[in-house]
Structures are given as structure tokens and as C-alpha cells.
Design a protein that fits this description.
The chain is an alpha/beta fold. The chain has helices at about 5-50, 175-185, 190-200, 205-235, 300-315, 320-330, 340-355, 370-380, 380-385, 385-390, 400-415, 420-440, 445-450, and strands at about 150, 155-160, 235-245, 250-260, 265-270, 280-285, 295-300.
Amino acid sequence: MDIKDNYIKELETVVESQRLHIMQLESTNLRLESTILKLEQRITDLERRLKLNSHTSNKPPSSDGLRKKPTPVSLRSKGLLPSGGQLGHKGSTLEQEPIPTEIISHPVTTCQACGLSLADAAIEKITKRQVFDIPDPKIVVTEHQVVSKRCCCGSTTTSCFPATITAPVQYGPRIKSLAVYLMNQQFIPEDRLQQLFKDLFSLPISTATLANVSTVFADKVSNKQTAALEALKLSPVKHLDETGFRIGGKTQWLHVISNQNATYYHVSAKRGHLLTDLSGTIVHDHWKPYFTIPDVQHGLCNAHHLRELKALEELEGENWAARMGRLLRASNKIKGAYDRISKVYDRIIKDGLAFHDLRPPLEGRKKRTGHNLLLRLQSFKESVLKFYTDPIVPFTNNQAEQDLRMMKVKQKISGGFRTTQGAECFATIRGFISTKVKQNLNAFQVIQAEWG
């Protein structure tokens, strides 16, 4: 082999080496481009999440933080009337009682001009001012005595204690009612309730006693809550929702079914433990397991839709979302034009889908957030507009969300429950109180009535 052949062979070896190196670099470049694209998408998603708040998502207002806008932004369109009390609205204020509990007279004895006595002068005018206050809190101890007497026949007869008097010393129904009310309506934790009884009434009361009072009261009203549940199952419209509930340091689930007249809660270790034997229309937030409930129709919460649409409008600049938001708000006010509303609804969906078809596909993910919402609004159009076709179905699921909100307040104050039994007792009592309040009854009075 001559020098020329050796040189050519060396060049071929170098070329092959460079070719392999180039192929390796191209492979690395493709991998890096894919990684960069994924990272860009992830950064976009994270930035979008950072911009979400309680007005553009289902996050609670407490998550907004101090750096968010302090002024709440309503999803409702601005009305024609100013905020506050309207012209002609009858206000309410503290008014004098015709028969006061106590009267303190401040007599005038001498004339301030000449100093003569006014003891025998006639009263020309009395001006009244009343002070509303509460009496000094104190414990009233009532002793019950039974008497034994012997008859001339030799037999001894003893009177009986009332059925509610079962121990030598016990707490009365007002104390028990106040404990149930403060723990389950005002969410005062047991240790603070102990301090309250000690400070106001100089009354020692143990946490075990408070827990027992709740257990006994829950047993008293459990039948009423069962009846409320059966009535809700048969109600033409009912609201469903669920939220996490901390029990024994673990997350369990609190479910609610309610309407404007009644509330029922049930605690479950699994989120998917749903109620059965329902009929009519259930209003919910589009959680998929609700669609597995048989023999019911569905109404979807449009407050959730409006928040999602607002996020797409403000954070993604998707014009169709603004149009759909305006349509939903307008259709909540305008009745009797379903065909027109339906056509506009379909046109907006069509325009939104066309908008997303023109956008480049995402790496590693099938569809964007707005695209998924469009498909959901398209597939569940009947349930989205259920409020329009059925006048007894509300626009939102706010009823269930309001009924759950105070349960979350309880959890924030007390930090959860130690046992499942305690959580179930609270759910039963809270459902009973919520039902009675919806019926315009005084919460403390209905609790006291149950104790007898």
C-alpha cells in the first residue's frame, strides 16, 4: 500500500469519526430541544398557577395572600343600583321596649333657678332612655328532694325524682345547650370553652364531659337528620359537594347534600363514598363520580365555569372565554330565549375549538387547559344550561359550598378531630343546626328544646 492509499484511508477514518460525532451531537440536540420545550411548558404552567387566585380558580380566598389585590372582584356584572341600602328600604335599629325590666327614676328636688323645693310640684314630662345589657352570669343550683313517709299501715312511700335527674350532682339542660351551641355553631374548641365556663360562671367542666354532651346530643337528633336525608333524596333539586376532613391526623372526606330547607353531612374515609337512591336533579361542580349516580339529572355549577373562563381570558388571552362568560351571565337574567342562547353557545364553542386547532400541539400533553374546558362545555351542554331549561335549578352550586364553608372554618380553628366518632357527632349536630337555621328557627332555642 502506497502513501496515497494510507492517506486516503486515514481521511476516511477521520470522516467516519466526524460523522458519528455529528450524529451524536444531533441526537443530543434533539433531546435538549425536547427538554427545553418541556421545561418551557412547565414554566408556563407554573407561571399560570402563580397568577391564579380565588377569582380565577377554585382556590379559597385565604390562599390569595397579602400580596394579592385586597379589593374583591365579583364575577357578576355591574348592576344599575348603587351598593348598600336602597331608597325606601326600612332600616333596623335598637328600639325602646314598652315594658322595661327595671325602671330607675331620677327625681328633681329643687328648682335650679330659685332653689325652692319641687317635692310637691306636678310632673310635666318624663323623658325615657333605655340601656340594654345582660345580667351578671351566675350558676343557679337547684336541689331536688324526694320525701319518704310511713303510713299507719306500716308501708313506706317515697316520691320520685324527675326523669331527667339521674345523679346526685349533674349539669342542667341550659349548660348542656350552651356547650352544644358554642362548640357546634360558634366553633369554640373544648379547651377555650372550658376557660369560658370558668371565667363567666366559675364553673369547672372537663373535656370528657363536653365530649359526652356532644355524643348524647348527636344521638338525640340522629333520627331527625335521617329524616332530613330522606327528604333531601326525594327533593326535586339538591346540591352535592365534598371536602377534605382531618381525622386522627389523616385526610378523610366530608360530603354534604343540601337545599334551601335542609342540610345533611356524612363522613367517609373515601372520597368516592357517595349517597344512593337519589332522584331529581343534583347540582355539583362536575366531579366525575357524581355522573355515576343513577336515575338523576345533572346541573353544573356555573360559578366554577365563570372562574375558569376568567382565568383563560386574563391569563391566556382567549377571546372565546370572555364571550362565553358574558353569555352565561346574560342567560342567567334573560329567560324564554333558549334557542337563541343555544345557538350562540354552540357558535362560541366552535370558534374556541377552531382557535385551538390553529395552535401548535403541546409536547407530552394532548390538550391545553382552554381546549379541555371547551370539550367539557360541549359535551355537557345540557347540564351547563340546566338552570335555563329548568327554572327550579339554580345557576351555581353555592348552596352546598356555603354549607361546607363553615365546616372548613371549624377545621381551621380546631385543627381537625381526634376520632371518627367525634367527627361524625359534629357532622350530625351541625347538620341539625343548619337545617333548623334554614327554617328560620333560633339555633340555641332548638338545641335547648331537645334537652327538654
